[in-house]
Amino acid sequence: MISVVGAGVMGKELIKIFSEEKILLGYYDLKSKTENNIFFDDAFLKQSVQELKNSSFIILCLPNQDSVEKTVDLILNNCNEKNERPGIVDMSTSSPDFANKIFEKCSLKGINYYECPMIGGVRALRERKLNVLIHSNQQNYSKLEPILKLFCGKIYEFRNSGEPNSLKLVHNFITISNSLIAMQGLAISDVLGFDRETFFDVIENGTASSYVIKNTLKRTLLHDDFKEGYKLNLVKKDMKEINSLFKKCNPNFAIYKEIVKIIMSDFDEEFLSVDYPIIYSQLFKLNN
Predict the structure, then answer these.
(1) Domain containing residue 66: CATH number
(2) Are residues 157 and 139 part of one domain?
(3) Are residues 188 and 259 both part of a single domain?
(4) Is the model's pLDDT at 65 over the cut of 70?
(5) Is 22 tagged catalytic?
(6) Bridge partners, residue 57, by sequence
(7) What CATH number has the domain bearing residue 252?
(8) Alpha-carbon gap, residue 36 to 8, rounded angstroms
(9) Residue pLDDT, tens place only, 209-265
(10) Helix, strand, coil tally for the chain in percent (to 5)
């Protein structure tokens, strides 16, 4: 049986999938039920992480490293018996150094830890075509693989701890960079008088197309739907980790430095919990 900790956008979809497959033992969220608008049967909602200890795997979909470490510590402190040793599948994005830390902590306790960041976003998960990057500290990965295949298109396996999150951060940097360039193009298109429907139709059907244009930016900046997606506070969190990781490579690129500067700018407080293209109105909107 599978349990989920974290009922944000991605966590909710995983809970739904496992419930449909009738393998959901339960879920727990750090936020209150009212605060997070949980819509699942209360029978699955647990009051503590400890209630999930009989799971085969506990999947973490959490927003930051502090919440991951807190949850992992709770799991480790309540797994003293051999029959209470669930595998921990960490699908959160973190720094490679943090992943190494959690890997070592779980290894010392004899707990199977899977570093498993996600690629593809909520729509890919909803369509059961999510991609994941995975490393684990044990040999019986075959027990987890059928679970992942319920909602994954591709599974990339890595030999060393920290590698999945390193490549995930590179991936996120490219995504963020593409979106910022596309927003600048949209601002210029607006000033030139082209309607946005035409702009997006031309761009997504040409060589400039990308997932972020066809999905994220079109959904937000054309259809004004900011309800689900990559929140600005998470983008800023990832950019902090990206900058820390990339400094080891000494990237003396002007574009890289400018992208870091833009994302780490001070934004209106109400923007932080909204899909990140909301920054368009503050940074890229030009006067006609």
Answers:
(1) 3.40.50.720
(2) yes
(3) yes
(4) yes
(5) no
(6) 2, 87
(7) 1.10.1040.10
(8) 7
(9) 999 999 999 999 999 999 888 899 999 999 999 999 998 887 788 888 899 999 999
(10) 50, 15, 35
pLDDT at 73: 92
Q: Please identify which residue in the block is written with the tokens 């591709």.
A: 154
Work out the percent of the chain whose per-residue pLDDT is above 70: 92
Q: How confident is the model at residue 34 (pLDDT cuts 50, 70, 90)?
A: very low
- Kindly state the helix (H) or strand (E) to which residue 77 belongs, with its residue range: helix 65-77
- Among 142, 161, 180, the domain boundary falls at 161
pTM of the model: 0.89
Alpha carbons 101 and 136: distance in angstroms, whole number: 13
Same domain flag for 238 and 225: yes
Domain boundary among 123, 142, 161: 161
- Residue 139: predicted pLDDT: 58
Q: Which of 53, 168, 218, 231 is catalytic?
A: 168
User: Cα separation of 244 and 237, whole Å?
Assistant: 11
Q: Are residues 21 and 80 in the same domain?
A: yes
Q: Are 41 and 61 a contacting pair, CB within 8 Å?
A: no
The structure tokens listed for 272 are 């932080």
Query: What are all long-range contacts of 50-53, with beta carbons under 8 Å and residues at least 24 apart?
Result: 50/74, 50/78, 51/26, 52/3, 52/5, 52/25, 52/26, 52/28, 52/86, 53/78, 53/79, 53/84, 53/86
Predicted confidence (pLDDT) per residue in 94-103, tens digit:
999 999 999 9
Cα dihedral 247/118/55/228 (nearest 10): 110
Domain count, the chain: 2
Task: Please give the residue range of the domain that contains residue 237.
Answer: 165-283
Q: Quick check: is 288 in a domain?
A: no
